[in-house]
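Workshop exercise sheet. Pairs work together: one partner reads the sequence aloud, the other fills in the structure field after running the prediction. Swap roles for the next sheet.
Pair: D.N. / O.F.
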Amino acid sequence: MDRATTPDVSGRIAAPPEHVYPWYVRLIFALQRRKYGAELQSARLWGRLPRSFLALTLLYRSIDRKGSPIGAALRSLAQVRVSQINGCAFCTDLNGAAALERGVAPAKLAALAGWEQSLVFDEREKAVLAYADAVTDPARRVDDACFARLRAFFDEQAVLELTALIAFQNLSSKFNAALALPAQGLCALPDRGVRK
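Structure field:
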């Protein structure tokens, strides 16, 4: 088996360069090197749990897909917001880069931590961000008003897919934040990891 080639720059738990990964994890790493120029540190840690990593990769690909009823830019905004709430610098960085790639204006990313007072977001985006906040922040809950606000813009299928995406991003960002994974420099965002 091949050994990973990206040096460890992770937080609390190492992904040592000499760790041996199964072929399917190495394949995912090769795809990441092609896309990002390096293996993602989170993937190197998840790769130490190879079957779980493969299942998570497949789950994410099934949720964040071209045919989703939620547009790619809006999905990315929700993911960055969840990452901010959970204090995950790595996820905010990665998802911020994806958001820019998907056409999100840099001004929206800069204003995301204070989206409720911002004029750059439309009502549809604000409904998604309010829902992401309510699902993610343990001090909040999804109440009937929040859900009705979301349903004014999305049908049941879209709400199910958005909920799955938010839940997935919570899993990912909580894993990475707990392990103190730093940003990999994929996207320069203000207030990276700031919880508001």
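Discussion prompt: Residues 1-8, 189-196 have pLDDT under 50 and may be disordered. What would you look at next?
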